[in-house]
């Protein structure tokens, strides 16, 4: 769906654009498939700051974005002076999901978003999804 593997038949469109023929659809699409999408030698703060610059967001926009994930992060992700590679599988997932939602995408692709999350984090993530679904893009 994200044009990572060439299709042998059929096609995928996002906003009526064939994903195999254009890249402009990427501006309205977020994704997190696995921890290999993260830059492991950065801290979560450094990673989010890099994405902030890529998306052209202000520091205030980034702070507001990360605030939406405060409950999900549960004081285990930010401010811990840990590299992404040293986070637990569940916290890797949380960083990736927060990154996928940056830039206010119209659609977000997540592969097994509840995998490696404890039950309380799963509940927090479900609430976040409901909240994001209600937010106009």
Automatic annotation (TrEMBL):
Q: What is this protein called?
A: ATP-binding cassette sub-family A member 1-like
Against Pfam families, the record matches this protein to: ABC_tran
Q: Which organism is it from?
A: Daphnia sinensis
UniProtKB keywords? ATP-binding, Nucleotide-binding, Transport
A molecular function annotated in GO for this UniProt entry is:
ATP binding
InterPro entries named in the record: ABC_transporter-like_ATP-bd, ABC_Transporter_VariousFunc, P-loop_NTPase
Q: Which domain of life is it from?
A: Eukaryota
Q: Which residues form the ABC transporter domain?
A: 3-114
**Signal peptide location:** none
**UniProt key word DNA damage:** no
């Amino acid at each position: 769906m994200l044009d990572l593997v060439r299709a042998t038949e059929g096609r995928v469109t996002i906003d009526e654009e064939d994903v195999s023929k254009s890249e402009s659809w990427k501006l309205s699409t977020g994704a997190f498939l696995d921890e290999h999408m993260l830059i492991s030698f950065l801290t979560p703060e450094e990673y989010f700051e890099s994405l902030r610059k890529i998306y052209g967001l202000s520091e205030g926009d980034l702070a507001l974005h990360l605030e939406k994930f405060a409950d999900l992060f549960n004081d285990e992700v930010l401010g811990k002076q840990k590299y992404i590679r040293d986070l637990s599988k569940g916290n890797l997932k949380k960083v990736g999901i927060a990154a996928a939602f940056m830039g206010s995408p119209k659609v977000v692709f997540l592969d097994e978003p509840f995998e490696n999350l404890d039950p309380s984090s799963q509940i927090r993530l479900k609430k976040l999804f409901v909240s994001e679904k209600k937010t106009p893009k």
